[in-house]
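Friendly challenge for the regulars: who can give me the structure tokens for this chain first? No prize, just bragging rights.
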Amino acid sequence: MAKTGKGDFAEAKITESAKELFYEQGFNKTTVAQITKNAGVNNGLFTYYFGSKSNLAGMIETRFRLDMRNLVSAAMYDRYGEYNLALGIATEYRVIIDLHERYPKLRRFVMENYVSTQQFGDISDRDTEQSRDSMPASQRAHFYQMQKRLINPSISDVDLAIYQAVGISAANSLVTAWHNGIIDCSKEYLGDKFIQICFWLLGLEDERIEQLKRDSLDAMEGIHLVLKPYFILELE
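First reply, four minutes later:
Bragging rights claimed.
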């Protein structure tokens, strides 16, 4: 079945419907039937375009993270006149924690989606282009290779793969434990741990990691993102 202009419109309607329901109700309480009814389409179209609720939720979250990255990059470029990839990634970690703290609806969606993925997700399925991640595998690989080239050219491909596999899971696990009260610390300290773990996995020396902690705290002072319905970010 080839996509047509009408089909693309249906796909967009399903996505917007899901964003609205995920935002207002959370991942767990939202059903595929609710999404398709709200979008005015049948369940068959949902299955064709997205396969499952988890796949669609993952795509929405990935697009949200990319929007956040673009806004953080723009803010840092305006302030410093350049964009440093390592500092940008470190600052993003702090921005994520800040957004989760200020916006319970975002936090609920991300945490429920993450827990669902850990319990029921299939790794091989999540690695396909039309699954939990809206970013094509080639683009995702390019981003990690860019980190190798610009942040630590000496890291081996094996260690880079370990960083790719473990980094996001470690970050999600930390923030989930923090919001569940398992970890009792400030958001600044949690951000420090994000940065320490992820850049250690990327093979950076302790001195450089400590500098990224300090510089990202400074960078955060000039970045204030506002979340609007439904998962729309704006730079204030």
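The chain has two domains: 1-51, 69-235. Residues 69-235 form one domain. Your move, everyone else.
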